User: Which sequence fits this backbone?
């Protein structure tokens, strides 16, 4: 069984509240653990990566009851400080050879989607709606793919642009509708990846 993970909501300003705590961002790979007789691990894009992190699935089988689905973050932390090491995480993720164990490899579960067969998605805190935009940058007379935008498409921003996107649609696939490249947006992102894509882009403004 696979369940889509809940998306983060972007906040433009910090807040103070005695009802909340702040903690270090676990910068790694979003993972969905489906714990059953045979435990499986998936990325947020629904790619199964069970064979790459067998020590995680083995530990989950022992720790969680059967027919439970956990949403969390998979990362390698510094063994002394605990700080996430994204480069080390990706190196392990992309490795094609079998690795029995990696010091600091951690799975942090921050949501229980299913517990002992009971679906918990209807409880407060879970959003059934998700949105993603393919984005590109103009290089000369061409528009080059620059990644997928999921953060910041919330509230009025998403509602105001959706009717225009429908009018500009030129073709559709199962996952995406492709539109005329007329709409310009402003985004902030962490850095450019080796593949020339934006790392964690966030919508800041829409320019029409």
Assistant:
């Amino acid at each position: 069984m696979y369940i889509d993970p809940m998306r983060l909501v972007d906040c433009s300003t910090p807040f103070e509240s005695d009802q909340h705590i702040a903690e270090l961002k676990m910068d790694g790979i979003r993972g969905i653990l489906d714990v059953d007789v045979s435990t499986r691990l998936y990325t947020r894009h629904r790619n199964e990566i069970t064979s790459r992190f067998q020590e995680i699935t083995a530990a989950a089988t022992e720790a969680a009851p059967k027919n439970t689905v956990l949403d969390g973050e998979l990362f390698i932390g510094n063994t002394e400080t605990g700080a996430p090491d994204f480069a080390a995480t990706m190196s392990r993720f992309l490795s094609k050879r079998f690795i029995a164990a990696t010091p600091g490899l951690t799975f942090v579960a921050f949501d229980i989607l299913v517990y002992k067969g009971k679906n918990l998605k209807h409880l407060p805190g879970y959003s059934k709606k998700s949105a993603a935009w393919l984005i590109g940058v103009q290089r000369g007379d061409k528009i080059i793919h620059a990644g997928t935008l999921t953060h910041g498409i919330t509230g009025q921003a998403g509602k105001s642009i959706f009717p225009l996107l429908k009018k500009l649609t030129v073709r559709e696939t199962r996952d995406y509708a492709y539109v005329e490249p007329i709409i310009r947006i402003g985004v902030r992102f962490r850095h450019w990846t080796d593949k020339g894509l934006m790392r964690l882009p966030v919508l800041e403004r829409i320019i029409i």
About this structure: The longest strand covers residues 105-115. The longest helix spans residues 155-168.
